Amino acid sequence: MLKHITETTEYLVNKGFDKPEIGIVLGTGLGKLIDDIEIIAEVHYNNIPHFPLATVEFHTGKLVYGMLAGKKVIVMQGRFHLYEGYDFIDITYPIRIMHKLGIKNLLVSNAAGAINLDYKKGDIMIIDDHINLQGGSPLAFKGVSQFGERFADMSAPYDAEMIAKVEEIAADKNIKIQKGVYASVVGPQLETRAEYRMLKIIGADAVGMSTVPEVIVANHLNVPCLAVSVLTDECDPENLAPVNIAEIIEIAGQTEPKMITLFSELIKTL
Predict the structure, then answer these.
(1) Per-residue pLDDT for 59 more than 70?
(2) Which residues pair with 63 in a beta bridge?
(3) What range does the domain containing 165 cover?
(4) In the predicted model, is pLDDT for residue 182 greater than 70?
(5) Per-residue pLDDT reduced to its tens digit, 119-131
(6) Which residue range or ranges hold the Nucleoside phosphorylase domain (predicted)?
(7) What's the domain count of the chain?
(8) Residue 131 vs residues 200, 213, 238: alpha-carbon distances, Å
(9) CATH code where residue 217 lies
């Protein structure tokens, strides 16, 4: 993996990716942040050595480098998931590349379902903690100690200082936010009524199919993280309707401007 990371990094440096300060991962339906970036360089995933390919139709599959809020940023416009047939090493490889390029902070977004029924469609939830239900770890491979401590501490995977800043920004901009626990499952099927009940019992406030592996690797590399969920549906097992993917994408798009404001204002302070 070290050889691959070096080759990928050299390719991106040669394409103009020059010492980004902040890495950003954009989730389902949350790609319009790109419109606010002064783009310096961009490369499709299928042209980057050793990168996986995005296979989800609403994930663009592009790595973008540029200026946002006065800082150099590198943005994943489209991420990778276990449900696409990739393994944990594949889906977290871009985080290792962003770290190698020099990022000092990582911001992550996702679309998720609200398990906590006090939370509603269109709410933004700051992830304060998570539950890994994906059945594995991106650190479970030979040679992991070459990249960091094998037994990575996860007592506080989300940076308290960045969370506090986002809470202040939200209050100042009159943006309603929630804070809670995100459970990450494999997917791609949505949950059954019994599974939603289980998730509530074990303490999840929201559920999705991403983010946790990326955050584990960032913590392994000592990169401070902030993650937010855009809540696109309400997962009430007693009143469960069939999933409407088009509606989920629509709600993500409607809420996205608030997330962009939070990220842009936070970046100014980093």
Answers:
(1) no
(2) 43, 76
(3) 2-269
(4) yes
(5) 999 999 999 999 9
(6) 22-267
(7) 1
(8) 12, 11, 23
(9) 3.40.50.1580
